[in-house]
Amino acid sequence: NHARSFEQDYSKFEAANAQVLGVSVDLGRANNAFAGTHGFSFPLLSDTERVTAKAYGVLYDDPKDSVLFRRAKRSWFVIDKEGFIRYAMTTDPGEFDKNDEVLQVLSELK
User: Fold this and answer.
1) Element of type H or E holding 102
2) What pLDDT digit, counting tens, does each position of 52-99 carry?
C-alpha cells in the first residue's frame, strides 16, 4: 500500500523537512479507520467531492466500481513553500514505492 510505504519512510521525509499529507476520495470515516489501523504519523484527508483530485488532474473512470465511479490515480506531488508543484508522478494501480524519487527531489530543493 502506498500510504504504508510513506509511513515506513516517514522519518526520511521529516529529515527532508517535508510535510506528508495523504488524500483519498474515500469517506472520512474509512480513511480514519485505515489510518488508525496502520498508525500513520501523517494525516489522511478525505476528498469525497473529488475537488482536489480534479484540480490535480488525477481522476479516472473505474468501470469496475459502480458505486464510486470516479476514482483517483495513485499520485505523488512535491509542492514547495511558495506553492509551486516541483514534482508530479502518477502511476497505475498496483505500482508502488516512488519514495526514493520523491526524496531525491526534496534533497534537490534544499
Assistant:
1) helix 99-109
2) 999 999 988 877 765 656 788 888 899 998 999 999 988 876 666 678
